[in-house]
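User: Teach me something about this protein's shape.
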Amino acid sequence: MSNGSNELGGFLRSRRARVTPEAAGIAPGGTRRAVPGLRREELAELAGVSASYYTRLEQGASGSASDSVIDALATALRLDPAEHEHLRNLAAPRRPARPRSRRTKLRPAVRDLLAALSMPAVVVDHRADVLAWNRLGHALLAGHVAFGAPDERVRPNIARMLFLDPHHRALYRDWADKASVTVAALHQAAARHRDDPVLERLVGRLSVESPEFARMWAKRPVRTCSYYVRELDHPVVGSLTLANETVTLPDDDQQLGLFYALPGTSDADALALLAQTAREGLR
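Assistant: First, the predicted structure itself:
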């Protein structure tokens, strides 16, 4: 992610390869196609721009693209709303880098909110660093690390734990889906924060140490969803299925993750048992 233009070109190529000529209404020609999807010239024609301009845009030789061009490309590439917004972020003019705190701060009021919640809860920043969790959130997601780890110099990181920590990875029966969502979130964060060296190093480390992450990152997944159903295998309370709601804290560019089960279900009973175990662990 070291170069925004390369990211833009890579994203355009990945989505161009996804659209078949037949789907785009292009009659098959007599020559053999060298690419699985649309040629640059075909996409340019569909979007109503010159082939040379589109080539410069994909190669990073054009400084920016107008909203109308981005919209036309999104339509031609059949992007969903999340992919369309991601394309906008990648194509936006690069602003002069502003001094940026390497360490994200958590507002005291958010910390108080976490403590007041009876359900498992965690707050992460755009890098997937864990800024804080309540006791039950810690017990659910990472009881094998210290509760105070988010306040240490090196914080727990959801993406790093998901790909490099076997204990955290084993928590998810639906690991592939959780991993895909996490990689997509990092891709979107990279487009919004193109001058964040900490995020860049995280992606670099994961790409080197996890072939699975590298493969997923290369596919440039983009997904925006605030609600999931998570199937977990917890080391203390066993299998449980929880709803996972993600609430964005827009003033902080942070996300609050909440986990809950319907009252009267075996999953709610498992959470209650986990809460009791966490309380007993404090004694």
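Now, about its shape. The CA atoms of residues 10 and 57 lie 11 Å apart. Confidence is low (pLDDT under 50) at residues 1-5. If you'd like, I can walk through any region in more detail.
User: That's plenty for now, thanks!
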